[in-house]
Amino acid sequence: MAEVRAEMVANVWKVVVSEGDQVAEGDELVVLESMKMEIPVVADADGTVTALKVAEGDVVQEGDLIAVIE
Amino acid sequence: MFESVLVANRGEIASRVIRTVRAMGLKAIAVYSEADADLPFVAEADEAVLLGPPQPAQSYLDIDRVLEAARRTNAQAIHPGYGFLAENAEFAERVIAQGLAWIGPPPLAIARMGDKINARNLMIEAGVPVSAGVWEPVPDVATAVAEAERIGYPVMVKAAGGGGGIGMGAARDEAELVKMYQTARTRAERFFGNPDILLERYVERARHVEVQILGLADGTVLALGERDCSVQRRHQKIVEETPSPGVSPELRARMLAAAVRAGEAVGYRGAGTVEFLLDSAAQDFVFLEMNTRLQVEHPITELVTGIDLVEQQLLIAAGEPPSFTSTEPRGHAVEFRVYAEDPQRFLPNPGEIKIWEEPVGEGVRIDAGYAEGNTVTPFYDPLLAKLCVHGTDRPAALRRAGQAVAAFRIEGLKTNLPFFTELLGDEEFVAGTYDTGLVDRMRRR
């Protein structure tokens, strides 16, 4: 199981995947936006997205859980 | 001369403009969002008006709210800084229609230069060299591929209404172009409300060199030297210097003359910047774009010329002659943009500033937007401060820079200061032979 967490305070601009999706390492899960910059959050392992904890428009804090990949 | 100036901006540039407004004996009025209430620029102004929530669309980009703040405070002039509404021709028109002095170029000059396609055509008429490219928006990916074949790879994909490097990228072959065209279109639509895409020949190992111009009240256009802005990450400038180590006196004369022609072609008034892409090997240049406002990196021109550019902007807006007699530059100046971002991957890093200690000393100038105890929020660009140094020559300026970077202490969030230490030790940068690919090469080494 791999937890994907936010590296910084940001707004969730785009959610690319849904719960249940199969992803490969390096796939884009969500795109965050902070300080006028887009920051793609990618899967760090192959697997299934078993939990997706953010929605478009949410604000995430550093360390917040974004998704779980199993 | 008007008696009060509303500064329609935030952070370091608001502080910078307020400093000159007050030094000239005028009243400075700040506007701010809820996120910025504790920042230095709000306290430095004689009066400050809350615009609204942190989101730029409901504060710094909201024309109605900014104009209402001007009415309420009886402001007689508006300085837009850079970014936000600075290059918005509609805003300039409405400021003028409200009977206020607009501290910027005529709205028509903003509109003509804001559209990159129109600007490029104007430059051709004015005899300013431009790159090979398309002269109208590229409507679909098939046209893009056909045009790229004609221009020759690599090609630069750009947003017609864009700036700040957003939605820009170089494509080396058809596959890259197809991918980049779609991304650029989506981003251009989202960031600039205009999905039009341009293609231009991409110059490898190019330097990005710009010329500061000043259109005086009597119509004369002057060029105040160049700035080399080739140290970039993600097509955005992070370090600038003047004079450029890649420009010979003969080339400088040609670039300055071209910049003056560009300004004259649009009847320019006030401070503006003409950006060129320089092919160092060929010692040749092409027009990139014109920024119709005060530039982030204006302090290095001020350091070498001794001219306060904001003061000249105010004088020109009031129809008065400039306050300087000579534009002759002296010595060498370098600016470092201190960003709230990690120094390795350059990812933004908002947070609370626990410690803020600025370097002081001969030839060091800090234009800061924050102070100890402030919180850097994710709503705006990551610029914390501009660290500028001035020395008798380039080696002296770089020595001073090394000391100043080492002495600048910011704690509580990550900054790119460690990157500047790395840069000042980089052979290519120290030799002055670098180009816009420098930062990428440093990260691959």
* Name of the CATH class of chain A: Mainly Beta
Number of strands of chain B: 20
How is the CATH topology of chain A named?
OB fold (Dihydrolipoamide Acetyltransferase, E2P)
How is the biggest beta sheet of chain B arranged? Answer: 8 strands, antiparallel
Contiguous helical run count of chain A: 0
- Gap between N and C termini of chain A, in Å? 4 Å
Residue stretches of chain A low in confidence (pLDDT < 50, at least 5 long) are none
- Residue windows where pLDDT falls under 50 for at least 5 positions of chain B: none
The amount of helix of chain B comes to 25-40%
CATH architecture of the largest domain in chain B: 2-Layer Sandwich
Overall body shape of chain B: globular
Please describe what this structure looks like.
The complex is a heterodimer of chains A (70) and B (445). Chain A has one domain: RNA polymerase II/Efflux pump adaptor protein, barrel-sandwich hybrid domain (OB fold (Dihydrolipoamide Acetyltransferase, E2P), Beta Barrel), CATH 2.40.50.100. Chain A contains no helices and eight strands. Chain A has strands at residues 2-5, 10-15, 22-23, 28-34, 37-42, 47-52, 59-60, 65-69. Chain A is globular. The mean pLDDT of chain A is 92. With 445 residues, chain B is of the alpha+beta class. In chain B, the strands form five sheets. An eight-stranded antiparallel beta sheet of chain B has the order 13-12-9-10-11-14-19-17, with helices on both faces. In chain B, strands 3-2-1-4-5 form a five-stranded parallel beta sheet. The mean pLDDT of chain B is 95. The interface between A and B is medium-sized, with 13 and 16 residues.
